[in-house]
Amino acid sequence: MPKIKTLKTAAKRFKKTATGEFKRGHAFATHYKIAKSGNRRRKLRHSAMVAKADTPKLKRMIPY
């Protein structure tokens, strides 16, 4: 049985939690911050959870 390799691009973007869910960062958080309101920028700072529909795909990408 061959080993399953981790997709390094996914491993850099997502982190697996202790319960098996995945954390992700927000999009649109790096450039053009002057155009965004302070409230919006503050909300973009915090991480979010990946949707349940995308979790099986990520489990194949990050098996360990």
Topology-level CATH name: Factor Xa Inhibitor
Secondary-structure-based class equals alpha+beta
Largest sheet: 3 strands, antiparallel
Give the neighbour order of strands across the main sheet.
Answer: 1-2-3
Q: How would you sum up this structure in a few lines?
A:
The chain has three helices and three strands. With 64 residues, the chain is α+β, with helices and mostly antiparallel strands.
Q: Tags for this entry?
A:
3-stranded antiparallel β-sheet; Factor Xa Inhibitor; 3 strands; alpha+beta; 3 helices; single chain; elongated; 64 residues
Describe the SSE topology.
Elements: H1 8-13, E1 14-16, E2 22-24, H2 38-45, E3 48-49, H3 55-61
Antiparallel strand pairs: 1-2, 2-3
Give a description of the structure.
- The chain is of the alpha+beta class and 64 residues long.
- The chain has a single domain (8-61), classed as Factor Xa Inhibitor (Irregular), CATH 4.10.410.
- It contains three helices and three strands, in the order H-E-E-H-E-H.
- It has helices at residues 8-13, 38-45, 55-61, and strands spanning 14-16, 22-24, 48-49.
- A three-stranded antiparallel beta sheet has the order 1-2-3.
- A hairpin with a 5-residue loop joins strand 1 (14-16) and strand 2 (22-24).
- 2% of the residues are buried.
- The model has no long low-confidence stretch (mean pLDDT 95).
